[in-house]
Design brief:
The chain is an alpha/beta fold and about 325 residues long. It is about 20% helix and about 25% strand. Strand 2 and strand 3 form a beta hairpin.
Length: about 325
């Protein structure tokens, strides 16, 4: 009997699992939502029931002030949904609590990745290769030019800049969920033990990470610190604050930004970034293509980014592919 996978239905606002009458990462409120991670283009409040990892549910409670209908899904635990659908959450390696969702029904296996990366990250569980029949992958950096460098070299740019200019500070723009904590943790791994200063918008998410066992070391708020005390120090802020009035409080800052998009020089120039840091929480081109080979699905469904290029790669490698037209997927200053 030929599998048709008609039970899983991509829509512009989410992926519908028909036998279970539930949705994966819907962009509108639904009765039952299975959520891969806490970024706003995948998670939102207002669902009747939200099934996610404990960390993702905590992030959603913090960001969207809702925990109604929260249902825990531990990594490796299989949940039986209506319509004889089984759901198993496995690590995606994207941010704290991020998960792929393996769905099994009628002898067929489908993996929805959400967002993912294959690189080591001290702030979240490592991506788990999960064989399946249909693999639904993101393609945020789905072009061959996006090959992310080792993170150690990017972190060294920050510490080298401080060593060369001890009278200044380094102001790093980093997305508040995932990127900021990873940069801090990598700085600690590189031996940076000084206090790291935070924009107020970073405080609660960093505290949540620490509450879930991620050691970020000595963190202090810019608002509680004299300007001169931040000379020779690292400050983490949202990307939007880099050129804001708030940044004028910093002592002669060297502006940096941590993002996979810093591979594109024009993006760095547009942001007036002096120190581009190519640090991504998404898979690069090599990781995307290697993951498809590792998973070895019958079909690859592609969404969230450069769908055409990855679809073409599938065709050239005699792999069946399909591009999904989904809305509400943004890079959030990735």
């Amino acid at each position: 009997m030929t599998a048709d996978f008609s039970w899983i239905q991509p829509h512009p606002h989410g992926i519908y699992i028909a036998p279970a009458d539930c949705w994966i990462d819907p962009s509108r409120a639904v009765e039952t939502a299975l959520v891969t991670h806490g970024h706003a283009d995948h998670a939102r409040g207002g669902h009747g029931t939200t099934i996610a990892t404990p960390e993702t549910l905590a992030i959603m409670k913090l960001r969207y002030a809702t925990d109604d209908g929260a249902t825990l899904a531990l990594y490796g635990e299989t949940i039986t949904l209506p319509g004889q659908v089984r759901a198993t959450y496995t690590p995606a390696g994207h941010v704290l609590g991020s998960a792929q969702i393996l769905l099994e029904h009628a002898g067929e296996r489908v993996v929805i990745t959400g967002d993912y990366k294959r690189r080591s990250d001290p702030t979240c569980a490592e991506f788990a290769v999960t064989p399946c029949d249909i693999f639904i992958t993101e393609a945020t950096f789905g072009l061959p030019l996006f090959i992310h460098p080792p993170i150690a070299g990017e972190i060294a740019k920050i510490t080298d800049a401080l060593a060369a200019h001890p009278e200044r500070s380094v102001l790093v723009g980093a997305y508040a969920l995932g990127k900021a904590q990873r940069v801090i943790a990598e700085l600690r791994a590189a031996g940076h033990t000084d206090p790291i200063y935070l924009h107020g918008a970073m405080e609660r998410m960093c505290a949540l990470y620490q509450d879930h066992g991620v050691d970020l070391g000595d963190l202090r708020l810019v608002a509680d610190t004299e300007k001169d005390a931040m000379r020779g120090q690292i400050i983490i802020c949202p990307p939007s604050a880099l050129n804001d009035r708030w940044a004028r409080r910093m002592p002669d800052p060297i502006t940096a930004m941590a993002s996979g998009w810093m591979r594109v020089r024009q993006r760095a120039r547009q942001r007036n970034v002096e120190l581009p840091l190519i640090v991504s929480d998404h898979a690069d081109w090599t990781e995307l293509t290697q993951t498809i080979e590792d998973v070895n699905p019958q079909e690859t469904w592609i969404t969230h980014g450069r769908e055409d290029a990855l679809l073409r790669w599938c065709e050239l490698h005699q792999r069946k592919g399909r591009a999904l037209a989904m809305i509400g997927r943004e890079d959030e200053d990735e």
